[in-house]
Every structure is written in C-alpha cells, then in structure tokens.
Design goal:
34% of the residues lie in helices and 24% in strands.
Length: 164
C-alpha cells in the first residue's frame, strides 16, 4: 500500500489591513423592496383568489429574497494577500492582490453599464478593480479614497515594492 505525504496546508489566510462598509443608495433599496413587495403582494392576492399561481409566486418572493441576501455585498476587506468582498452569509469573493492589474475611480454610471462583475451598491463611491485574469469587478466602499490608498499599499507590499 502506497502512502502519501501529509495533506497540503491551506493557503496563508493573511491578516486584515483595512475594512470598509458597502453603503446602499436609496434607489437600490427601493428597487429591491419593490421587487419583493410586488411578488409578495401578487402571491397573496392570487393565493386568496384560489389561483394556482399564488403559491409559486410566493416561492419566487422567498427565492428573490435569498438571492438578494446572499449576493449583495456587506463589506470590503483588504488583507495582506487578497481583497475580500464579503457577501451575505458564508459567501464572499476573494481577489488575490497578485491578480489586480489596476484600480480605477469610476463614475456613478459605471454601476449601470459595466462589462464585468457588478458589486457596487452606491453610485457615489464607485471604483473598478481591473484584474489580470478574469472580469473587472466594480465595488463602492463608503470611503473610496482611504480604501484605494490602503489597497495600493497592500499591493505594493505584496509585490515587494517600497511604500511611498
């Protein structure tokens, strides 16, 4: 019987350098609330009228609520080896610092028209993270300038460049 070596060690977890919240614009809250309210009210009305489509529409409401909960960003974390976008529940998106090509300040319209992954929740502090591999990611930390400064410092340190 052939023995293998010890299991591989997990990747270095890194340490947290900076964390910022994801602010929500009023119109985004209105869109999400409106979507859930429309399907909920429609499902209740149809269920009370004994229509066969009422219960599935209530199921759509629950499904939509879960999607919004698990997909919308809660915060953005800069670690010494990665950028983590914290989503709902146990979910998150990690971008290795070595994969970040460029950080751009973007306009508020970028959250509506974007060829990439859209995780911005506010039109006031939008920034785009251009990756070497994969689609660009658009986010909106509450304090964009500080966030960009800390992220740039972390990238320089990870690449072995001196801080300025």
């Amino acid at each position: 019987m052939k023995r293998s070596g010890p299991p591989a060690m997990p990747a270095k977890p890194g340490y947290l350098l900076h964390e910022d919240t994801a602010p929500w614009d009023w119109w985004l809250k209105l869109v999400i609330t409106g979507t859930l309210a429309a399907t909920l009210i429609g499902g209740i009305v149809l269920t009370l009228d004994d229509a066969p489509d009422g219960l599935p529409l209530l199921g759509v409401t629950v499904f939509d609520a879960l999607v919004f909960y698990f997909v919308m960003p809660r915060s953005y974390q800069v670690f010494d080896n990665r950028l983590r976008i914290v989503l709902g529940g146990p979910f998150g998106m990690d971008i290795p610092l070595s994969n970040i090509k460029e950080i751009r300040v973007a306009s508020g319209s970028k959250i509506m028209v974007n060829w990439g992954i859209q995780l911005a929740t506010s039109s006031r502090s939008v920034m785009e993270i251009v990756r070497k591999k994969g689609w660009s990611v658009t986010i909106s930390p509450s304090d964009r300038e500080t966030f960009i400064q800390r992220l740039n410092e972390a990238i320089k340190t990870a690449r072995g460049l001196p801080k300025q």
